[in-house]
Amino acid sequence: MNSKPKVGLYVSSKGRSLNLRVEGVYGDSADFFLVEVVGEDEKDDPLAIAQELDNQEWEQLVKDDGLKYVGE
Questions:
Q1: pTM of this prediction?
Q2: Residue-by-residue DSSP string for 32-70
């Protein structure tokens, strides 16, 4: 895959109730970047703790859960 995700909401296409919001993508290369994610239900919570995933972790999550970008 090796493409950076867009900032916004991603939902599982595999019938799971996984909804993640990408808050930021950091890095200059498509070969290595970090993705900051938070659960959709926590997007407006200033105390929510975001997770940072590297590009390999993100790509595995997308593959395993069938994450699809649905917009900002």
A1: 0.86
A2: S-EEEEEEGGGTT-TTPPPEEEEHHHHHHHHHHHTEEEE
Residue 63 reports pLDDT greater than 70: yes
Q: How far apart are CA 48 and CA 25, in angstroms?
A: 18
Mean pLDDT score of the chain, rounded to an integer?
91
For residues 3 and 25, what is the distance between their CA atoms, to the nearest angstrom?
11
Answer yes or no: are the C-beta atoms of 67 and 3 closer than 8 Å: no
Half-sphere exposure of 14 (CA within 13 A, CB side): 8
Q: What is the rounded distance in angstroms from the CA atom of residue 59 to the CA atom of residue 70?
A: 17
Structure tokens belonging to residue 36: 């900051």
